[in-house]
Amino acid sequence: MLMTGSWRPENRAALEDLIGRVGRGGPEYQADAPPFAVFDWDQTVIRHDIGDALFLHQIEALGFALDHDEFWTVLDPSDVTLREQAALLRELADDTRADHPTFHALREAVLVGFLRSGLLDPQEGFPWQTRLLTGMSEAQIADLTRQAMQKGLTAPLGRRHFQAGGQTLHFHEGLRPYAEILDLMRQLEAHGIAAWIVSATNIWAVRVMAEALGVAADRVIGMRTQVIDGKITANLDGEAVATWGKVKAIQRTIHPTHRPVLVAGDNITDLPMLEYSGDTRLVIDRGVTALRQVAEERAAMGERWLVQPMFEVE
To answer: Is the pLDDT of residue 123 over 90?
Structure first.
């Protein structure tokens, strides 16, 4: 049923068993309570992170609403001088902009903001990148995402390093879809199990990449802020879709009481969502020791936890 790919044989067999049990025609299928599965997006359906790819592309392309008051409220409302100078950057030719001192100052400010957000509780820190989209339209974010995605899908896999705030920031470079996960999602759908995405990345970016990979946009739940008069604002639209907020997003959008039959994730911040599964949990092991230990301990207790090394990609 599932492609062989680089699945661990025991994981592939367990997932095929799940589909056979709870899928349409299986002994545990409930037509009056159709089953569904939930997947994190970044590092679970794809290698690396479309949110970070978009973020870095925005820095390079000046893809921010630099003339919008609320953008500077999110970034740094005290830096009036940078705001005045940044407005002039768009008048510079692309080949000279990257060497301009103001470009370096703006990049530093954005990266320091990112750095600070990482020190916050995930419910506060995870939405920061989405809030930084304030002042832009959904169509603008979609266009920037397509540009970032196209670059990422052809760029070699690696890491980029930036100095900001006296520290070194590391970002993954390159994007690759996991063929095995996309195949799993198609097989789930074919057997009457709805496959959903629940991501802490902004919903507009995830929808663009999901559609490009054959996943319906209306099956994507992601971080979002309110859109007023066609412009994205900094105000969260509901609770942050991160940690336990992912569970609440499932309850709010998919079903208030029915639990997913499968949850897939890669990070310790996915643990509340993984624990919410009513049947099987799939952990994509990218070296997050704390999550792998939980999965192995729960599996030893007889729960259905599958630990899958990262899939091979080119």
So the answer is: no
